[in-house]
Design brief:
The chain folds into two domains: 15-117 and 202-230, Nucleotidyltransferase, domain 5 (2-Layer Sandwich); 124-197, ATPase, nucleotide binding domain (Nucleotidyltransferase, domain 5, 2-Layer Sandwich). It is built from nine helices and eleven strands. The protein has helices at residues 56-71, 90-107, 116-121, 159-162, 173-177, 179-182, 204-211, 231-238, 240-244; strands at residues 15-20, 25-33, 42-51, 78-84, 111-114, 128-136, 139-146, 149-150, 155-157, 168-171, 194-197. Strands 6, 7, 8, 9, 10 and 11 form a six-stranded mixed β-sheet that branches. Helix 2 (90-107) links the parallel strand 4 (78-84) and strand 5. Helix 1 (56-71) crosses helix 2 (90-107). The termini are far apart.
């Protein structure tokens, strides 16, 4: 199969695979695209989630094989792929992107990239929502949405600074970690109340549904959204002996 030069939406009836790996909970989902748009863009969805923390590389390939077996699909029968491009944990993102790109190249099928914050917000009800992912180093990745549509750019910063901008349903492991900051009383009388949704993470089933409504293109065109340098780079640059040299 040849990936089309001009990205097009996955064809109805084609099987797709989605991978989320930007947080400590890795997810995979398979399903088929349908002709109708909206939230019902995929059907016959089977998904699996596993708390990986730092074991994305060890867990992803065997879980992927198990999922395809459950769905009764061979990898060669897939027609499109979807991947979470971040922001999130650098190692997890690299593992997910490398796996999806490799599979796309081997089979010759297109890929859709969706940000982890968009996928996370898709798990909220309609209305305003704020997706918050733990960025480590006492920071969070954050973005606001209204009915699933971005309301401003994705940002990285300290939670005590970004929490005051949160509105509506707030969800993600960043909210779980800094819950008290996000639920403190609003000082802006015109602001939108915050409702915390605990234990939420980007779900592969939500990613699959979002991706089925978007154009798919070559896997080589998919780029990660980091928002800042990897932790390893920052650690090397701040070591005393490196700074002294």
């Amino acid at each position: 199969m040849t990936v089309p030069a001009v990205p097009t939406r996955p064809a109805a009836g084609t099987a797709g695979l989605a991978v989320t790996s930007s947080t400590g909970v890795m997810g995979l989902a398979v399903g088929r695209a349908v002709a109708a748009g909206g939230p019902d863009s995929v059907e016959s969805v089977i998904d699996v989630e596993v708390a990986t923390e730092r074991r994305h590389a060890e867990e992803l390939t065997p879980r992927l094989a198990e999922l395809l077996d459950r769905a009764g699909l061979a990898a060669s029968e897939l027609g499109w792929l979807a991947v979470d491009v971040g922001p999130g944990r650098f190692t997890g993102l690299r593992v997910g992107l490398a796996t999806v790109r490799g599979l796309a190249f081997a089979i010759g099928i297109p890929v859709v990239g969706v940000t982890s914050l968009e996928v996370l917000a898709a798990g909220a009800s309609v209305g305003p929502a704020t997706a918050v992912i733990d960025a480590r180093r006492q920071e969070v990745f954050q973005q606001r949405f209204v009915d699933g549509v971005p309301d401003g750019e994705a940002r990285v910063g300290r939670p005590e600074e970004l929490a005051v901008e949160a509105a509506g349903a707030v969800l993600g492991d960043g909210f779980d970690r800094y819950r008290d900051l996000y639920l403190r009383p609003r000082t802006d009388p015109g602001g939108v109340d915050v409702v915390g949704l605990d234990g939420r993470h980007p779900r592969a089933a939500d990613l699959l549904a979002l991706a089925a409504r978007r154009p798919a293109g070559p896997g080589t065109a998919i780029r990660p959204l980091y928002l800042r340098e990897p932790d390893a780079v920052a650690n090397v640059r701040t070591r005393p002996e490196v700074a002294a040299s």
